[in-house]
Design goal:
Elements (H helix, E strand, L loop, with lengths): L19 H17 L14 H5 L14
Length: 69
């Protein structure tokens, strides 16, 4: 029997976010990714980031659903 393809790469896994604290942690992590990879100096400089949606009045390039933090 052949194995079904996996959505996640082997070192990654799905994660249920069940608290406001964890939600903020994950959002901060996502906003920091382009900075940590030297793709931007600040999350606001990454055009596809949701940072501007959460921290300014700018909606950014991608529509967002508001998440209470």
């Amino acid at each position: 029997m052949s194995e079904l393809p996996s959505f996640w790469q082997p070192r990654f896994y799905d994660f249920n976010v069940c608290s406001a604290k964890k939600q903020k942690e994950k959002l901060d992590y996502m906003h920091a990714n382009p900075v940590n990879r030297s793709l931007a100096k600040h999350p606001k400089d990454w055009p596809w980031s949701s940072w501007s949606f959460y921290f300014t009045a700018d909606p950014g390039l991608i529509g967002m659903d508001a998440v209470d933090l």
